[in-house]
Specification:
- The structure is a single chain.
- By secondary structure, the chain is of the alpha+beta class.
- It is built from two helices and three strands, in the order E-E-E-H-H.
- It has a three-stranded antiparallel β-sheet with strand order 1-2-3, with helices on one face.
- Strand 2 and strand 3 form a beta hairpin.
- Helix 1 crosses helix 2.
- The longest helix is centred in the middle third of the chain and has 29 residues.
- The model has no long low-confidence stretch (mean pLDDT 84).
Length: 97
């Protein structure tokens, strides 16, 4: 997927093209949206990091006491179910929004 990059040519253009790892343009934003362009360019790396975090949280939850009442286990499962998994699903087009 990544790395993607924002190419600002500085030639007076109002466009910020974003290029994929293969050099193909994947998006174009206007100059006033540099922060958004940087976030889009970081998206493949962020998704990969989130998947690694999911795997680590899943592994960690296996070593917690099996009781759902245990606060640390509950917190891990809560983060996985309500933050990590929905964000990955959204990025992969498996969820609305």
């Amino acid at each position: 997927m990544g790395p993607w990059k924002v190419a600002w040519h500085g030639n007076g253009s109002q466009q910020l093209p974003i290029y994929g790892a293969d050099g193909v343009e994947v998006a174009v934003l206007t100059k006033g949206h540099l922060g958004d362009a940087r976030l889009i360019a970081a998206a493949p790396d962020l998704l990969a990091a989130l998947k690694e975090a999911r795997d680590m949280l899943t592994t960690a939850s296996r070593y917690m006491p099996k009781s759902i009442r245990h606060p640390a286990r509950f917190s891990l499962l809560n983060v996985l179910a309500n933050s990590v998994e929905p964000a990955i699903a959204k990025a992969e087009g498996r969820a609305g929004g």
